[in-house]
Here is the input.
Amino acid sequence: MDHDHPEETDGWQRFDRAAFGLIYGAITVLSIAMGVADHSEVPFDTAAMLFGSVLAITLAKAFAELLSHALDFKKHITRMDWRDAWRHSRPTLAVANVPTLLFIMAGFGWVLPETARTLSQGLCVFLLAALGARVGWVLEGNVLSAVLGAVFAGGAGLALALMKFVIH
Here is the structure.
């Protein structure tokens, strides 16, 4: 079966290229949400901690990849390498934007902190499920594979979201 999808739009291609960063960002946000669960009653602090942590982790990953690549290939780091690292990091940071905004909204009293946390986790689980479905569809081209991919990836995200109850 030919799995090329000539009818796919640029939007799907961009989504596919961003998949690594989106997955990394969703898992990072879910992981940080476990750690800030006790502090979410101070929503502005949670927003800063969430976005700051994702930013630090993302930059650390990009920096480590750049330096280790330079060592592995004995190659100087160019401006293009820095730009590529930033482009590769943007999707990860983008995932943190909505949860950060939700906690800022909670800081203003527009939503409850628990609502901000639940919606943030829900967004990440949904994003992982959507990416899992996309992988199933691209690899097999059928609905069953897309559903199984969504269940697998979304289930992994849901497990991370529920771990906070076990830990706390």
In short: The longest helix spans residues 43-73. The chain has five helices and no strands. Residues 10-167 form one domain.
